[in-house]
Amino acid sequence: MAELKKGVIAVSSPKGGVGRSAVSCLLSLALERQGQSVLLVDLDFCIHTQDFFFGAEDRALFGLGDLLAGRQAEEVLLAVTDGGRVRLCPSVGLDGLPDPQALSALLAGLIEREGFDWVILDLPSSCTGEYAAALSHVVLMVSSTDPTALLGVQSLSQSIPDEKDAYLLINRLPLGDGQRTKQGMRPHEMIDLAQRPLIGILHEDGALSCALAGGRAGSLTGDSLVPALNVVLRLQGEQRLLFEGMRDEKRHRRSLDP
Ligand SMILES: Nc1ncnc2c1ncn2[C@@H]1O[C@H](COP(=O)(O)OP(=O)(O)OP(=O)(O)O)[C@@H](O)[C@H]1O
Ligand SMILES: [Mg+2]
Q1: Burial 222-234 (b: 16+ CB within 10 A, else e)
Q2: Where are the domains of the chain?
Q3: For 235-255, what is each residue's pLDDT tens digit?
Q4: Distance CA 196, CA 194 (A)
Q5: Ligand 1 within 6 A of 42 CB?
């Protein structure tokens, strides 16, 4: 397998709809905000999500399938933000998950030639932990507060080798007082069950879902980016407090103490 020299982040979860694509998009924007250049790779061969999020469907004529078949990067990769530092490889032309060796070699070549600082892999739900781990330096396992999403993370975690850096990332935590929603889990319950450390919490964000649905991901700023910026900083080794909502969790746990 070609050695990948730079930071490759695999965003994964066996449960559909938990926000892998939203998280991949936000992490790319957060890294760009730091002045880094990012290759965002959409590996969902069923739905072309990222070009939709960035309002770039009309420009996404070629994609990863074409790159793997030998097409030049300049014909495939799309600049999708005003800053121009996030380039998207759409999932066009894929009919399944690519062979990991071929993909690894392709990514290594792109990092070398195009000078990307980071690569974000938006993986489909059918992707295994072994596949995600083989292609990346770090695996982010995304879960909503839905218990079945966390079950998915548990089984994903078991298929990722122990020595691999892998973290739980909670997405769509309802904003508010931290009380249990009808079916939702609390962050501390999720941390205990996930078997891997927590890297960050993204709350339910109406502005984010509107921007993504309207193809305006490239213009996301401010509050929507802060949790993703914190995840990026933690990945780079900085200590950052977890989302404010944790305070409510702590208060709640203290109140349970006899
Ligand atoms: N933090 C959030 N706040 C509000 N809406 C969100 C958040 N994260 C994701 N969403 C919304 O949830 C929906 C599913 O998100 P997304 O497409 O990122 O999930 P996915 O895990 O990639 O799904 P798929 O299984 O289709 O690949 C989208 O409509 C998205 O806008
Ligand atoms: Mg997706």
Answers
A1: eebbebbbbbbeb
A2: 7-256
A3: 998 877 665 555 555 555 555
A4: 5
A5: no
Q: Which fold has domain 7-256?
A: Rossmann fold (3.40.50)
20 CB within 6 A, ligand 1: yes
**Number of Cβ atoms within 10 Å of the Cβ of 59:** 14
**For ligand 1, is residue 66 a contact (CB within 6 Å)?**
no
35 vs 153: CA distance, rounded Å? 31
Distance of CA 174 from the midpoint of ligand 2 (Å)? 20
Give the list of residues 6+ apart from residue 8 with CB closer than 8 angstroms, or none: 107, 118, 119, 121, 135, 136, 137, 138
Region of 55 please: left (phi>0), alpha (psi -120 to 50) or beta: left
Quote the mean pLDDT of the chain: 90
Cα–Cα distance measured from residue 225 to residue 230, given in angstroms and rounded to the nearest whole number: 9
Give 256 Cα–ligand 1 centroid separation in angstroms: 33
Tell me how many degrees the CA angle 11-17-19 measures, rounded to the nearest 5: 45
Model pLDDT, residue 37 = 97
| Alpha-carbon torsion angle 97, 156, 118, 36, nearest 10 | 130
184-217: per-residue pLDDT in tens? 898 888 988 888 999 999 999 999 999 999 999 9
Distance of alpha carbon 219 from its chain centroid, rounded?
Answer: 18
* Contact predicate 198/227, CB 8 Å: no
pLDDT band at residue 230, thresholds of 50, 70 and 90?
very high
Residue 215 carries which side chain, given as an amino acid letter?
A: G
